[in-house]
């Protein structure tokens, strides 16, 4: 190189340096390679869409276990409260007779009066005894037992009503927890509904 003339050195230097067209061709090739690769698509996602994508995946895993667990719990509560209500109702019906007077007592009193009339004892027949139903009152133990039975029946029906509402809430949450809209809007809507469930001590 030292023995070359200055003009020859200039020509060699110009050939070693790439021109603008060569640079443009190289950049176009790089862009084509990046468009065809998956690295560019993954790197192109912003943090917001990546966050809501991860949120939805975690929420789906949580909701599947949550809905399955509480749906089975509501069904068990409905079954138990239904059986308990049936037993309580049968017990109340069986105890109902203890809260009213025996009709046979009134019948016996009337028969006694008719017998006195038939024997000609008008004085005894005229002084009719008081009707047993007017002086009869139930025992306090029977009243307390009936109160407990009615209270248990009311509580079981209330539990069944709550279980039905719970199943309806779970069904609505399962089908409408995301709604429509963009990915972040659906995620926010699901979080709002889940916060409402937490507020009502559902989870």
Strand and helix order: HHHHHHHHH
Strand content: under 5%
How would a textbook summarize the main sheet? none
Structural class computed from helices and strand pairing: mainly alpha
Number of helices: 9
The geometry reads as rod-shaped
| pLDDT averaged over residues | 76
Could you estimate the helical fraction of the residues in percent? over 70%
Distance between the termini: 83 Å
Rg over CA atoms: 45 Å
E-strand count: 0
Describe this structure in words.
The protein has helices at residues 6-16, 20-36, 38-44, 47-95, 103-118, 122-126, 132-135, 140-176, 183-199. Helix 4 (47-95) packs antiparallel against helix 8. The radius of gyration is 45 Å and the shape is rod-shaped. It has 203 residues and is mostly helical. Mean pLDDT is 76; it is low at 8-13. The protein contains nine helices and no strands.
List keywords for this structure.
203 residues; mainly alpha; rod-shaped
Secondary-structure map with pairings?
Elements: H1 6-16, H2 20-36, H3 38-44, H4 47-95, H5 103-118, H6 122-126, H7 132-135, H8 140-176, H9 183-199
Helix pairs in contact: 4-8
Sum this structure up briefly.
The chain is mainly alpha-helical and 203 residues long. Helices cover 80% and strands 0% of the residues.
